[in-house]
Amino acid sequence: MIRKRSGTRGGGGPARGRLRAALGGVTTVLLTATALAALPQTTAHAADTLGAAAAEKGRYFGAAVAANHLGEAQYAATLDREFNSVTPENEMKWDAVEPNRGSFSFSRADQIVDHAQGKGMKVRGHTLVWHSQLPGWVSGLGATDLRSAMNNHITQVMTHYKGEIHSWDVVNEAFQDGGSGARRSSPFQDKLGDGFIEEAFRTARAADPNAKLCYNDYNTDGVNAKSNAVYTMVRDFKSRGVPIDCVGFQSHFNPNSPVPSDYRANLQRFADLGVDVQITELDIEGSGQAQATNYGNVVRACLAVTRCTGITVWGIPDKYSWRSSGTPLLFDDNYNKKPAYDAALSALGGTPGDPGDPGGPGDPTAACTATYSTAEQWSGGYNGKVTITAGGSPITGWSVNVTLASPQQVVSVWNGSPTSNGNVMTVRSTWNGSLAAGASTSFGFTVNGGTTPPPQVGACTAS
């Protein structure tokens, strides 16, 4: 997918013409672009995944993503199936994008953003100003140079992704742990003073007026000295017109630091200040029913607060977690769904036990694959073909997402049942859903509005 930097994305153009009555002897179902847009949104299966279930509640459910894992088939398939928002785990931090002063490198962050956009996902930006993961040159600057470098860093990074990030963690972890409620020592705090946070937010607003600007921190999940200090800052910012739109609660929990009893009330008091609240880095150490209960409680707390706009878990399988020994995520090392997954999905209103459960349709022995090829092509469009192949066990149905780049539009689909959601078309099996182990079938579609780039075909989901 070709992405536009520092500007709005192009709108879709009208479809050009209609498909001839038949192709290759196969009678087609003719759909104009208008008819495709009028198809019902994907709702019948919306409760099958975290992202879709959250979307039904007007929220997102995202995951922190590492670029170096996107080439792993199970990682990418689980990400694409389950989540509708991504946060780059490390790829947007200062040391990754500006290792040398004034020299920016966005390639790895771009990889994540490109993948997300190709699958119709939103992106959270993490993070612009943080005391950790700073390149050495930042700490060596005097106050005047540091202020200039901070503002330039914010401006350059946000301009690069302008219009592509739904929420930015502008400043991260600026308060001390413990009972003091004081600011944390950092190059920014020590050399620029308390005003650096306000300055960072004002610079961020100028760089991308449409992005949500968040302050993000940990150990602020309940009412305590640290969360009170953040609350006081946010209240002051709102009273003086400092541009802050949201507060991120990292929500890293374990048996020694459990989900606090006043978690929901704490989220609500921040929301009452007139900011959104987001659960930004959720992981909960443990296993079994205890872990599941905690995940369910967190999701329900977010749903109970109108301005809690979404949840991000900090990773996908346990083995890639920064706390892997605590098995804190929703998927085990082999991408099997854990009881915590079922609890989170149930809390969102979804139905556990659908594609992806161990031993069920999403198990590797019962999975399917989807491969794309261009069948015919002409100056204004092409016919695409997607081949579905069952894995090691029979399947009784399948679905695949196809994402198009504007101004391309689908005007016809055959051998599958399509629904449309923006530029993403979901095609499900009709008469050709039942496949023996290793057997294949296919569906086809016609696109008008250009031949490049080719469509992005997501992972196959079996049932």
Write a concise keyword list for the protein shown above.
disordered N terminus, alpha/beta, 463 residues
Task: Summarize the structure in words.
This protein has 13 helices and 21 strands. The chain has helices at 33-37, 50-56, 73-82, 94-97, 107-118, 136-139, 143-160, 187-192, 196-207, 225-240, 263-271, 288-304, 339-347; strands spanning 22-23, 26-27, 29-30, 60-65, 85-88, 122-130, 167-172, 212-217, 246-249, 252-253, 276-284, 308-313, 368-378, 381-390, 398-403, 409-414, 417-421, 424-428, 440-448, 456-457, 461-462. The model is unreliable at 1-46 and 354-366 (pLDDT under 50).
What portion of the residues fall into strands of 2 or more residues? 15-25%
What overall geometry do the principal axes of the alpha carbons give? globular
- What is the CA–CA distance across the termini? 29 Å
Contiguous helical run count: 13
Low-pLDDT ranges = 1-46, 354-366
* Structure summary, number of beta strands: 21
Strands in their spatial order, largest beta sheet: 4-5-6-7-8-9-11-12
Mean pLDDT: 87
Assign a percent range to the helix content. 25-40%
Biggest pleated sheet? 8 strands, parallel, barrel
How big is the Rg? 23 Å
Query: By helix and strand content, what is the structural category?
Result: alpha/beta
Assembly type of the shown chains? single chain
